[in-house]
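Slide 14.
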Amino acid sequence: MLNFSAHEYPYASQRQSVFARRGMVAASQPLAAEAGIAIMRRGGNAIDAAIACAAVLTVVEPTGCGLGGDAFALVWSQGQLHGLSANGHAPAALNIDAVKAAGHCQMPLHGWTPVTVLGCPSAWAELSRRFGKLAFAELLQPAIELARDGFALSPVVARQWQATLEEFSRHREPVLDAWFDTFLIDGRAPRAGEVFRNPAQARTLEELAATGCESLYRGALAQRLDAHSRATGGYLRASDLQDYRAQWVEPIKASYRGYDVWEIPPSGQGLVALMALKILEGFDFHQRDSQHTWHRQLEALKLAYSDGLHYITDPLHMKVAVADLLSDAYSSRRRAQISEQAQPPAPGDPHASGTVYLATADAEGNMVSFIQSNYHGFGSGVVLPDSGIALQNRGQEFSLDPAHANCLAPGKKTFHTIIPGFLSQGDQPLGPFGVMGGYMQPQGHVQMVMNLVDFGLNPQAALDAPRWQWLGEMKVGIEHNAPRDLANALARRGHQVQLDSDLIHYGRGQIILRDPLSGVLCGGTEPRADSHIAVW
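Slide 15: predicted structure.
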């Protein structure tokens, strides 16, 4: 049984698990969580709350998401789990030859080249259309007011904002000028506690609210994006936006010790988390913070990630089936490759024998696991002037090797890092969980699931626990608050251990669980961010 106890906190924490009966919103920003719960109090459901929360996050945490990014959602409603993919594809004019002709030997991080079609606003509109109770325009009103009237900047976001300014200043080019005009105060990044206003984004949000986001894909905003792209050497065109809509997809799952762990299917990397859990299920774990546990977790993630990076791409281009990668036989073969010493990662052959995450729940039983991102912080650095729309750089994930599964092609969707998670048992939904942060995300999912299931931690303790992450090859990152003897033991097993004092590198998560017997909600929120849980 999952632990809903409010009395057991084995790790140092300044937070406690939060309980509620009628509704809960967990997010990385207090203003966003409170906006979501306010929508519930006005008659909205968990889906409405998620949209309102997500829209506010684009205003108050633009270092992690924006109107020009992508989004994914897992929605429990009407007795079943629904998946929504709102990831954009490469523009029709963007191909390997064009990128190489521009002088690049790999996809760049900044400028127009890594910009893909923006999917996030389409996700909001589609969620509202299918499951929402309130008018869509009402859901964006809190974000509009905060963008227009201003908000006091939170500490973690302030540090990220300053870091982005330093990065963009080192790589400044004319196409980034609109970012400097939009997101600075007198040429500097806003400071923690300082009021920041974005009237241009407020006007854009008003237009999205009035048109159900149609303007961004088939209206005036789409035409403005087209014109700006043409004028500044971009590849994005109105025709790329014209036919785009978020897609409903069938979630994928893996059984783990009697619980079902759900993820969005490829091109998302949620499959990596499921493959790792399938490998780990064959081991017995009795203690969380032991060298045996962490070693096996790391080795399983290395194997799963090797396969994921080798095979995962746009599902229309994948050459290996999800079912093959999750088969018991393949999981057993991969498990057998884990020895007592660390091994270099390599993909197997299954045929051979600045992101933000939020969670919501309501009294009707609806629950949402939602994630949106511009990929790297503010994204590409390209901003549509006088709009507040910062465009993502998700296309940086594409390979320029034509033989690679994730090679760039016009209209193709790239390997995607952002993933929402969900837990259930039998026909009972237990709740949404997620850990944002690039390639940390499936690693965070594995750790959260095991913290809850194997080690009986309550949601807050599951998030408080020290984290690890595989950094590539034999390198392993461990948070500085992890036991030092544990780090030394992993090093003796052949892991190249790096202790890290920057906790933001280890993701920022949220968890909401519903007690199947009482219906009471129990939530945990991330101590590594400016997080908050709002309740009703």
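Speaker note: The radius of gyration is 22 Å.
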